Amino acid sequence: MRRTLALHPDSRCNAVTRIDVEATRPRPGHLVLRYTVAGKIAGLRLPRPAVSTRTDELWRHTCFEAFLRPPSGDA
Q1: Could you report the per-residue pLDDT of 30-45, keeping only the tens digit for each?
Q2: Contact 57/65 with Cβ under 8 angstroms?
Q3: What is the pLDDT of residue 59?
Q4: Dist CA 56 CA 45 (whole Å)
Q5: Which of 25, 17, 8, 24 is nearest to 61 (CA)?
Q6: How many other CB atoms sit within 10 Å of the CB of residue 45?
Q7: Beta strands 2-4 and 32-39: pairing type?
Q8: Can you list the residues of the chain whose pLDDT is less than 50?
Q9: CB 3.0–4.6 Å: which of 3, 16, 19, 55 could bond 39 by disulfide?
Q10: Distances (CA, A) of 39 to 33, 35, 43, 53
Q11: Secondary structure of residue 46 in the 3-state scheme
C-alpha cells in the first residue's frame, strides 16, 4: 500500500514537495515502511552520521515517524 503523507501543520520545508510511504508485510509479524521524498533534495540540511541516541522533538528536523496500534487496540 502506498500513500502520500500530509505535512505537519507546524512544519515548513521549501525543499520538499512531496513525501510518500509504502507499507509492506514481507512475512507475518513484520512491517516494512519505505519513505520517498521528492523536491529539491540538495536543499535539505541532513545531519552527519552519528551514534543513535534518544532525542526529543525529532519531528522538527529530518525524521520520519510511524504510530502503530495492534488490530485489537484502540490507542
Answers
A1: 999 999 999 998 988 8
A2: no
A3: 67
A4: 18
A5: 8
A6: 8
A7: unpaired
A8: none
A9: 16
A10: 20, 13, 9, 28
A11: coil
